[in-house]
């Protein structure tokens, strides 16, 4: 009996403690005038950072949290704290971060979602963030195993975090999907605002040192308008916002009197996003520049290698293609069968194992005028790609120099471990 009594009292104590903690958390959230929850398939981390930058520039005390290449807590002064996880990430991370870092003078939160499952989409909004200005960046084919097979099903899953009697902002460009999101928002009593990328000018893009998408910037403008923040203030805040470590940093170097614009799109690994990203690069290099694509193929991702060979041949109008890593013969053969002239494909992967000088010599030799743009695709880690990444890492315009600090020191060891794993399993060329 005494054991049962003690157990009952313990459970009662835990329940009361949890209820009081929950009550305190609810009161913290209620005091926040601005609660922004960022969802979508692509661009969430960048949009979170841009919005937080706008609010900081406007003098609003803002706590932000990203779940991108390196998950970060961004304090109101812009200082970043890496999120250290002892196990797999869960949506309760949002609760713990808010509980620890929300202060009396905090006026706004901007949180990136980490929910995929429909139940988690609902719980994270209704119980943890309670966003009143929420964002769905776009609807793309990803995570179909948990979010739905079709774009329409994915849109409905994302819609589970639309607020009740709030505002939904989206930059989704396909009318039928945007209308579906709007209907879902209307059912919850929320207004939908379309963030039109046409409002973003070339001058706006020119202020960024990394690949920026008009859609993401347009979402920032939409938030600013809702809150009455002047456009100039919003733009300044977005320019000053530190980019996510996963963004595409655009760098330049000279080799044998040729300017090489380096744009690593290695993290973009689906067809639609690849085409969108490549098209978005045009403002960052001269008209008439020689366009050279790198197909960087890992030995353990044969399907992706052939999928990108297909994309390269059918969807991307590059002047030359360079293969890195594995599957060079198979990729070359497939691309030639699809109509790419053999002379436009240069193998510099495991079949050659070139030095950095050799790679740059070949690239400079392909450039017809004074400038060439070198775009990396498919995967991040092969020894050849690592040579380029390491070279540009030490350039003055590298993000490690432009945005030095705890974030990069946290991320760099992980990148080195990935590199060691890759180099330790070099494939035999078929």
Structure description:
The strands form 2 sheets. Strands 4-3-2-5-1-6-7-8 form an 8-stranded mixed sheet, sandwiched between helices. The protein is an alpha/beta fold and 430 residues long. The chain folds into 2 domains: 214 residues, UDP-N-acetylmuramoyl-L-alanine:D-glutamate ligase (3-Layer(aba) Sandwich), CATH 3.40.1190.10; 173 residues, Mur ligase, C-terminal domain (Protein-Tyrosine Phosphatase, Chain A), CATH 3.90.190.20. A hairpin with a 5-residue loop joins strand 2 and strand 3. The protein is built from 17 helices and 14 strands.
**How many helical stretches?**
17
Low-confidence stretches: 401-430
Tell me the radius of gyration.
24 Å
Q: Indicate the overall shape.
A: globular
Q: Give the count of structural domains.
A: 2
What CATH architecture label of the largest domain applies?
3-Layer(aba) Sandwich
CATH superfamily of the largest domain: Mur-like, catalytic domain
Structural class: alpha/beta
Distance between the termini: 72 Å
């Amino acid at each position: 009996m005494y054991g049962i009594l003690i157990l009952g009292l313990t459970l009662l104590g835990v329940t009361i403690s949890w209820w009081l903690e929950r009550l305190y958390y609810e009161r913290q959230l209620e005091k926040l005038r601005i609660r922004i929850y960022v969802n979508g398939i692509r661009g969430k981390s960048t949009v979170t950072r841009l919005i937080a930058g706008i609010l900081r520039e406007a003098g609003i005390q803002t706590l932000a949290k990203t779940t991108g290449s390196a998950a970060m807590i961004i304090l109101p002064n812009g200082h970043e704290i890496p999120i250290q996880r002892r196990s797999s990430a869960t949506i309760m991370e949002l609760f713990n971060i808010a509980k620890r870092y929300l202060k009396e003078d905090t006026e706004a939160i901007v949180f990136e979602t980490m929910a995929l499952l429909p139940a988690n989409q609902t719980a994270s909004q209704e119980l943890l963030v309670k966003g009143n200005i929420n964002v769905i960046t776009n609807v793309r084919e990803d995570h179909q195993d948990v979010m739905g097979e079709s774009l329409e099903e994915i849109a409905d899953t994302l819609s589970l975090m639309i607020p009740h009697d709030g505002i939904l902002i989206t930059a989704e460009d396909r009318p039928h999907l945007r209308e579906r999101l709007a209907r879902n928002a209307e059912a919850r009593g929320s207004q939908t605002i379309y963030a039109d990328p046409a409002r973003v000018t070339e001058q706006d893009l020119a202020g960024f040192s990394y690949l920026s998408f008009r859609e993401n910037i347009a979402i920032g403008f939409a938030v600013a308008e809702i809150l009455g923040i002047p456009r100039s203030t919003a733009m300044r805040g977005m320019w000053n916002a530190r980019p996510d470590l996963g963004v595409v940093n655009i760098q330049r170097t000279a080799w044998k009197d040729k300017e090489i614009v380096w744009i690593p799109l290695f993290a973009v690994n689906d067809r639609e996003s690849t085409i969108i990203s490549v098209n978005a690069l045009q403002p960052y290099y001269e008209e008439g520049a020689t366009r050279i694509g790198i197909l960087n193929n890992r030995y353990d991702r044969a399907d992706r290698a052939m999928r990108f060979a297909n994309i390269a041949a059918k969807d991307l109008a590059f002047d030359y293609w360079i293969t890195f890593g594995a599957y060079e013969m198979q990729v070359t053969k497939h691309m030639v069968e699809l109509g790419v002239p053999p002379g436009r494909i240069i193998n510099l992967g495991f079949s050659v194992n070139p030095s950095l000088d050799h790679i740059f010599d070949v690239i400079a030799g392909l450039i017809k005028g004074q400038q060439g743009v070198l775009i990396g695709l498919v995967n991040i880690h092969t020894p050849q790609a690592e040579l380029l990444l390491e070279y540009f890492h030490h350039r003055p315009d590298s993000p490690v120099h432009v945005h030095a600090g705890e974030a990069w020191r946290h991320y760099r060891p992980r990148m080195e471990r990935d590199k060691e794993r890759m180099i330790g399993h070099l494939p035999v060329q078929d």
